[in-house]
Amino acid sequence: MSKKKTPKDSQEGYVIAEERIEHFKASSKLRALNLSKLKLEKLPPQLFDIENIRDLFLSSNYLKDLPEEIAKLHSLRILNIQNNQFSTFPEVLLKMDKLTILNLSKNNIDEIPDDIARLSELKQLSLRANKIKAIPETIGKMVNLQHLELADNELKELPREIGYLGNLKNISLSGNPFVFPSSSTVQGILPENNGMFQLLHYFINNPPANIDNDITTRIELPAQLKVAFHQYLTYFNIYVYNLSGVRISSEIVEDELGLSIKVPQADIDYYKKYLIVFMDFIQNKAEDINPRFEREMNGHEKELAILELRTQVRHMQTQIEIKNMETKILKEHVNDLVSLLSLEKSHPQPILIQTTSTSSANSSARAMAQSYVDFKVDFPVLQNELLKFKEEIFKHLNEEQKKELEIIDAELLDIDENIESPEAIKKAPFKRVKRIIEQINDPDSDWAKTISASKKGLDFLQSMGRSYNKIAPWLVLPSIPEVFVGNKK
């Protein structure tokens, strides 16, 4: 259903906006201002006199452009202008180079300016549900980006420069008519919002799209080992570069049965030369691995390269151990796997690596592994639900509640969801989320009173609770009672 407005609605919303701005100016503590859902067609000029505003919410209005004066808000860090009527990217935003979060979703924007990289501090850029047809190559210079939302646009291809976003944790691409990479490839390397490691290296290492003489091989793997082998084989390209200084190209795609690996003919020799040794590492103690470097590196560079290699080997070995694959079974198949991966023919017969499951320990291992998978999938969901919750409920919060949400948000952003050990993750923000959710059952608590003012706020909070419960076992944290998080729709 399209939004409807009347001159009276716009006038009333404008008056409310002016009142909120004056209230903000009168307070020395406020840092966030919510002018969403007021049917605004323009912004009150008083807004641009505020020097200390950090968060500005202007979603669900009727704005078609932004005045130049908004660039005067030098302290602004978060700007949400989703669900308005922008047909072009507001050029004035390029002057606001201190922004860390920018949400332009649900507009009619068809182009991203080449100068987007001027927003060098951005950590989150949301452009979902626009009409964007291309991403400029300069996106690769936005090295601080952690979250990039591009779903539901008109993108047919992605620039390889997106592979230089080394800090990117989440990217959403669904709902685009991709030609390069193909839609099936995007889905294969991006289950849900994860798979960033594979995505980045795919774009850095993938050969040009018009190469026809690639050699492809397939490995059939049990589902429990597919992700681990994917990561290990993806790291192989980095290993070769660290060792020899040569950049090789490959594409690794997951499907229902295992992995497909595509390598250009020009790079086959390097694969044959280094892959057998690389696969042999799985059978060795990680601390004994000491590769012979063929290029000049200083001592610290070598130490870092060896540490990275040993970490990848340990991760692979740990995943195999978690699945309780007996050592002798692994050794029986490693030689077959190496032979298969040598890529001497285009389509060899696949080898199926079997696992054993004969003890109750196996059930515990599977549960542990699944909990880790839940963390990888649901941690970004938890972060996004918190952002939605903040936006929806912010105007109802007292200062203490705002501070608590800001602390949780900052602590969650600092967590790397690729950490493989629960001991390495700070538990404080998860405990804070759990405490807030459980307080909704106490009608006398401040949180219960605040959340009761927003139905959507309660929905988002319960969604956070369900995500929390999925990852809590791996973090060794208590779950939230089901009565507090509602039934999943």
TrEMBL record:
PROSITE patterns: LRR (PS51450). Keywords: Leucine-rich repeat, Repeat. GO terms for cellular component: cytoplasm. This is Leucine rich repeat-containing protein. InterPro entries: Leu-rich_rpt, Leu-rich_rpt_typical-subtyp, LRR_dom_sf, LRR_domain-containing. It comes from the Bacteria.
